[in-house]
Amino acid sequence: MAGSALEQVAPADGELAGRLRKSMAAVEARLRDAAADSPDSLIVQAAGYLLDAGGKRWRPLLVLLGAEFGDPETAEVSDAAVAVELIHAASLHHDDVMDDAPLRHGVPSAQVRWNNKIAILVGDHLFARGATVSLELGEAARRAQAHAFERLVRGQVREVAGPRRGEDPVDHHLEVVRDKSASLIALAVRLGGMCAGADAAAVRALGEYGEALGVAFQLSDDIIDIVSEADRAGKAPGADLRAGVPTLPVLLALRGAGDGAAGRLREILGAGAVPGAVPDDGPHAEALRLLRASPALELARAEVARYAGEARAAARRLPERAARDVLESLCDLVTGRSA
């Protein structure tokens, strides 16, 4: 899935496409300025490092699409788009430290380029810059952002802590995905509507759309980690499997009754509630083969389709306009990317 988010969406409506191109260019320029707003040269260099490496910019685009259900020219819309992407960039710095990830956007991650301490502190800087940009938003928007930030942290903590005693690992994973990943997607599209003055019903539908789409998107990433043969977005095939990061296909395969692969996978991944890391090439390759042949893969795809369907249903409660067509098309894109 090469190209920016806007290139992948490619709105059929020329007026909408032009407005989005102009707004995304403005957001991109403001991102650099906001991230680099520091008297310390190291902070300036490190804060701009991953932003300069790229990223598809889904979250600011979703802010702009949500704003189409109000007045998209409202100044606060651009502030919201910049703030949400800064929060996302901050979370990536922290994620890469926690996952010991070697790459991000196809370049060495910040913790590899510098060290863990610098990566964490630069992530904190980006969170602070996002909060500063948000000062221009209304109280309701700032409250929504704070709640999403709280959910993001809660999801990260729950992922690190693992399932509680007696908790189903699959249910635990879905809760983590909702908080850690979907919360920011939901915030983005909802914040766009709020800042643009969309009515309450539209803002509610946008939030429900973003929540469901965010879960579907992350679960499709879970599947891509297993099925991809080529490097995507700077992430090698089976990277989560190698690092012991739980994903839906793995968790479904491990609990599979009557599936002969489940027993062997437990031998490779360990018998705990969550999978262990598989750093060695031989067991890693075997685990990938077993997972690709497992019924769990189709079960995971069905979950992606279910959440994408929920997102589509929410989008159809929105007023009929070109942006709604784009939001609906994203449901197809998400299901198709892991097919």
From TrEMBL:
Belongs to the FPP/GGPP synthase family. Pfam families: polyprenyl_synt (PF00348). It comes from Sphaerisporangium rhizosphaerae. Its cofactor is Mg(2+). Its EC number is 2.5.1.-. InterPro entries: Isoprenoid_synthase_dom_sf (IPR008949), Polyprenyl_synt (IPR000092), Polyprenyl_synt_CS (IPR033749). Keywords: Magnesium, Metal-binding, Transferase. This is Polyprenyl synthetase family protein. SUPFAM superfamilies: Terpenoid synthases (SSF48576). GO terms for molecular function: transferase activity. The keyword Transferase applies.
